[in-house]
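Why does residue order matter? Because the sequence determines the fold. Keep that principle in mind as you read this record.
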Amino acid sequence: MTATELYVIRHGRTMFNALQRAQGWCDTPLTSKGAQDIHYLGLGLSDTTFVEAVSSDSGRAIETMRLILGENKSKPPYSVDSRIREWCWGSLEGGYDSEMWGVLPRVLDFKTSEEMWDTEITFEDIAKAVLNADTAHWAEPYEQIRGRVLGGMEDIAYRIEKNGGGKGIIVSHGFTIAFLLNLIDPSQPVRVDLQNGSVTRLRYEKGEFTIEEIGSTAFIEAGRKISADFLA
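Structure:
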C-alpha cells in the first residue's frame, strides 16, 4: 500500500487578510496578488499526483482549490467539507484583527496581547474567550471545534488510506491548521504565522498523524520560477 500523505494548504490571501480583519466564517474573495500566488502554488504542485482533493466550504478555500487544480496534471476528484472550515469568531467577525486580539486577552485576564502570547496560552483558552466575548452567540465550544476539525481531517485521511493510499490535497484555514497541528502534537504552539498558500504536510498511518513539514512556501517559489522561465 502507498503511504498516505496530506498536503494541507492555507487559502490564498483575501481582501480581509489584506485589511487585517478577522475572518472566520465570514468570507471575502482572494485579492489579485493572492490569486497570483496561488497560481504559482498550482504550478509548483503541477507534477504532484493527488488522489483526492478536499476544501472547506468557504468561498476563499474553494477559489484557492480551483486555481490549484487548474494547474495540476492529475485532476483528482474534488469535494468540499464544512468540518475543515475556519473557527467562528462570532460577533468579532469582520472587525480589525487588532480589536479581536485586544478583546480576547482581556477576557483571559491579560493586560495586553503581548503578555498573552508570551504565556503558554492554549487553543481551549482561546475558544473559551471567544465564547465569552461573542455577544451574537455564534461561536463554537472547544469540544465542538475539536470534534469537527479532527473528525474531518481523520475521515479524509482514512478514506485515502482505505482506497490504497497516496497524496491528498486539502485547502483549509490558518487557525484551523494550527489547531490541527496542536491536536496531533500538543507541543505545537498556538500560532497565527502560517502564510497564505503555505503547505503543511502530514503523514497518516493506522489512525495516527505525524507532522512532516509546517508552513512551507517552497512550492510557491518553485511555481514563480517556472512562470519566470516560461516568460523568459
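Strands lie at 4-10, 50-55, 78-80, 166-172, 199-205, 208-216.
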